[in-house]
Specification:
By secondary structure, the protein is of the alpha/beta class. It is 38% helix and 21% strand. It has helices at residues 36-55, 81-91, 98-115, 151-162, 179-188, 199-205, and strands at residues 7-11, 24-27, 60-66, 120-126, 128-130, 137-141, 148-150, 168-174, 177-178. It has a seven-stranded mixed beta sheet, sandwiched between helices. A two-stranded parallel sheet has the order 5-7. α1 packs parallel to α3 (98-115).
């Protein structure tokens, strides 16, 4: 893999797929499939390796990581207690292997921005991924805790974020706002769904 010119990365959850044409390198994720060993190897070990390599390479200017909506340690301030309990039950139940792997990768990418402020780190955090065509309408930013979104819309949002000045954590569900308007809004309002997380611990654990 060459770092000879300015590039950005897009880490896709379930399959080899370019997200933003020549801007995105193709990296694979296990998507929670194939057993705990495969999840650990791909969604944790490989992801963190690429994140750290990108952060150490000045020509890499952007890195987009597709995570999932429940990947956080603490309750989002805009979620209800019931939503947080449902999220925790899922994370420590059906997603008990996937959740810690994705969380560590999200935190690692975020921590790298404190090592190199010029790295535009984006963690896109969709809800349940479903098949279907692009709808062009989403809920982006501080969303509710449960819901779905088409894979096609995720890809469009990811490409648009890579072409924008957006950085930080962005939750994503199907909704009523156009993708263009949603991205303009979250950037203008400086929305970052990392609110409520322990930044000092992230930096300490991934320094």
């Amino acid at each position: 893999m060459s770092f000879g010119q300015p590039v950005c990365f897009a880490l896709v959850v379930t399959q080899w797929s370019p997200i933003a044409g020549e801007k995105a390198e193709q990296i694979v994720g296990a998507g929670g499939k194939g057993g705990p060993e495969r999840t650990q190897a791909i969604d944790h070990d490989s992801c963190i390796y690429f994140v750290q390599a990108a952060a150490d390479t000045p020509s890499v200017t952007k890195f987009l990581l597709v995570s999932f909506l429940g990947s956080r340690r603490f309750k989002a301030p805009w979620w209800s207690a019931e939503e947080w309990k449902e999220t925790q039950d899922l994370n420590h139940g059906a997603l008990k292997n996937y959740y810690p792997a994705k969380l560590a990768s999200d935190e690692c990418l975020t921590a790298q921005t404190f090592k190199r402020a010029s790295l535009q780190a984006i963690v896109l955090r969709p809800g349940l991924l479903i098949d279907g065509a692009v709808t062009g309408k989403v809920s982006l930013g501080k969303t509710k805790a449960r819901g779905s979104v088409t894979r096609a819309d995720v890809a469009v949002v990811a490409a648009a974020l890579l072409d924008s000045e957006g950085k930080g954590w962005f939750d994503l569900l199907e909704g009523d706002e156009t993708i263009s308007d949603a991205i303009t809004r979250v950037i203008k309002d400086k929305v970052d769904c990392i609110v409520g997380e322990d930044m000092e611990s992230m930096i300490r654990d991934h320094s």
